[in-house]
Write a structure and sequence with these properties.
mainly alpha
């Protein structure tokens, strides 16, 4: 089966002029012609064109692509392996660049004079603005939300770092108790749950036991919160919920 130059241009997302040029320089010579000399491309030609376009996307000049494809020691699988490795490397680099841009935007939005490196040091993989619109929609009319916004506006870079360290310490201590096999209502775990509640009250908004319990439920009901805690230790979201509930029960 063969295809016309127009069909191939449509398949590959290139212009007919580009295909004509590839033919003229010997990079992609159609394997067939009609009786009147019109180009017809075979399936093998399409495979070669795919390889050409992969290499072009990676920035290779046409002369080097021709040399690579015409190398008798190379086979199609080796070309694909090389391209896969190079594309993967490029994807990783682009993802790093995108993350750096996102961190820079976070710093700007929060009014904190941080470089992207400093922003990463403070927040790691957590994006404090990822669900900002949803948070404002759900809680914007509450005093807790307004109090959080007021406090956040006063924090310096060092304040954010200190809060992040304390938060990490609390979460890691709870994860360690869970890993050690302590039940969520063990005295040491309940004490850590209370420390967690007091930390929220001191850093964000007044968090009584009822509010804390609602937060605990959200940790297992909202997959985004669940993912955050599960990344610390598998099963931690539910363990946090249960420890918070145990702490609230003991406060009555």
């Amino acid at each position: 089966m063969s295809h016309s130059v127009g069909q191939v241009a449509g398949f590959a997302g290139v212009t007919v002029r580009t295909l004509h040029h590839y033919d003229e320089i010997g990079l992609l010579v159609p394997g067939d012609r009609t009786a009147v000399g019109h180009r017809r491309y075979t399936d093998a030609d399409l495979d070669r064109l795919q390889q050409i376009l992969f290499y072009r996307e990676l920035g290779f000049p046409l002369e080097q692509i021709a040399a690579l494809l015409d190398d008798p020691a190379a086979d199609p699988v080796s070309h694909l392996r090389r391209q896969h490795a190079m594309l993967t490397e490029r994807i990783d680099r682009l993802m790093e660049m995108a993350a750096a841009v996102e961190r820079a935007m976070e710093a700007r939005k929060m009014g904190i004079d941080l470089t992207p490196e400093e922003k990463f040091e403070v927040f790691g993989d957590f994006d404090p603005d990822e669900h900002a619109e949803e948070a404002e929609r759900r809680w914007g009319n509450t005093e807790e939300y307004r109090e959080t916004q007021r406090r956040a506006a006063t924090y310096t870079k060092e304040d954010w770092k200190a809060l992040k360290r304390e938060s990490d310490e609390i979460h890691q201590a709870i994860a360690d108790r869970m890993t050690a096999g302590d039940p969520p209502d063990a005295p040491e775990v309940v004490a850590l749950a209370e420390r967690h509640r007091l930390f929220i009250s001191r850093s964000s908004y007044t968090c009584d036991h009822e509010m804390h319990t609602r937060l605990g439920e959200m940790y297992v009901q909202d997959e985004r919160f669940t993912a955050t805690y599960e990344a610390i230790a598998p099963g931690m979201a539910r363990y946090m919920r249960d420890a918070i509930a145990a702490n609230a029960a003991q406060s009555v």
